[in-house]
Amino acid sequence: MKTKKSGAKYSAIVGIGEELKKLERETGQEYLALNRGINNVVKIDLNEIASEIDYNTAAMQFYAPTTGSLSLKKAINSEYFDNKADTDNIMITGGGMNALNILFSTLDVEKIYSHSMFWGAYANILKITKIEQDFYSDYEELAKNPEKFKNSAIIICDPNNPVGNKYSDKRLLEIVETLEKHDVTVIWDGPYRRLFYGNTDNLYQKLLQFKNVIITESFSKSVGLSGQRLGFIHTQNEELNKEVGIKLLYCNNGINTFSQILIEKLLTTKKGKKASSDFKKETVKHISRNIQYLIDNKLLASEFYQKSTPVGIFVIVNKSYEELLDKNIGSVPLNYFTKRTDIKPKKFSRICVSVPNDKFVSFFDKFKVIDNFSN
Fold this sequence. Notes:
Elements: H1 12-27, E1 32-33, H2 47-50, H3 58-61, H4 70-81, E2 90-93, H5 96-106, E3 111-115, H6 120-128, E4 132-136, H7 139-144, E5 152-156, E6 165-166, H8 169-181, E7 185-189, H9 193-196, H10 203-207, E8 213-218, E9 231-234, H11 238-252, H12 257-268, H13 270-296, E10 309-310, E11 314-317, H14 321-326, E12 329-330, E13 332-333, E14 349-352, H15 357-374
Helix pairs in contact: 4-12, 5-6, 12-13
């Protein structure tokens, strides 16, 4: 049997998680798994919402519409775009990774550029879809040299994964405007943003003025439902819209109906909005406390936040993977997220800071004990 090899690699993050579980079994000690990109402060309370779902309807038991249910699209239009978008331009996907996979395989571009600090899945999806990946050093490079990116697409991920930093919306919109004038396609991939912003956030509405901007979104982080695998693509390009719809049909044959109904209720009902708000409020509170702890104890790698603000759900710390593992903390070495040669990425690690503050502090306080002893 012959196999066509993609060249993509199995997720190192999953492999690290398996290693942590193995260490827990072998040592009987607890390990803090900060290698994963999962909000783990609290779980969103779905009990009251799920009890209101009628499981015996045709909508639940038959095939879902190819590009998603109209009622969910309307809810997304209201929540994200203040009803200023066309629902035909919103297509429901099986999570953010599914959205990117379909998008990368559909765009007719020479290269797709990501930030020099990038989510590892970008590289692997691009290998699978046979598109060359390249990098821009920072957002100012996009502003100063927009002509360099002709016939390519640019990924803007803000807040960033792996750094977890937030740049000024005003400046980012100015950069997008510059790229638009040079006919450069922009993929705005912001699955972490809505964890920190409510429906008064008008960034997505502002992005509607740019015809070359494609938005990819996910509900995995914003409402903590990575298990439901639901996201969406928004594009105003009619041709791209049509091709994405075709791939949604033949790759997915529609997206899971239950997850669509569940997310719709979170976006539209009183109980759903309260559950979402409570989840976000508690999660962000602990993320903020954890980041402040790292800053106060000089564990945050401050060199990565000179022109931006750390907000999470990830940050970079100035401890290596091995140093953290020695304190029973799981992380991912920074070299998995960058090809930069001006730094020594193995000296740094990416961690997820979306865990309860008391547990986070109890593990990182082990570094304090070492420091006090050495002094």
